[in-house]
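look at this record:
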Amino acid sequence: MIENPLENKFHRTIVGLDEAGRGPMAGPLVVAGVVFPDGYTNPELDDSKRLSEKKRERLFAVIKQDAVWYDIEFVDEQTIDRKNIYRADQEAMFQIAKAAPADIVLTDAMPLDGLQKHVESIIKGDHKSISIAAASILAKVSRDHYMYHLDALYPQYGFAKHKGYPTKQHKEALRRFGVLPCHRRSYAPVKEQLEPRLF
């Protein structure tokens, strides 16, 4: 993991940042940041997409227990539509990084210009950095829990299964039952349903 050389080089505390939910056409974007004690290791931590749901749920509790500090922020659909998903993600990460009790910021390929801290934007960071991996798990599990809540409210849309991603099932439900408040209106499949029909 990339943390140890950075800790040795800079003698500073590190925060790792990641998000879940850039691709879905429904539900919030969730952005998380994690600060571990210096030298912290846990070989089980990895990119959330590489882990089973059962393992993510277990590690979710471990991360919150072991972290010196963590933050989980939800960015609503209206903000995503207004700013675009990239900018909404970047601004949420910037605010978490700014508030974090850390001098070094590691992101999963997201530049954070203007932040008065040392920032490293790492390609595939959620696999290379234990802090980013932990943030990816917090974000993913938090978002999945929210999508299960939406599934209970709107069972005909199948949110528990597809988590808001534009699957065939989700697009069909969108056509049959219409656009919900949780849908992102700037995303093409949703936008198409909102356009007036000529015939």
User: Anything to note?
Assistant: DSSP finds nine helices and five strands in the chain. The first strand starts at residue 14 and ends at 20. Residues 130-153 form the longest helix (24 residues).
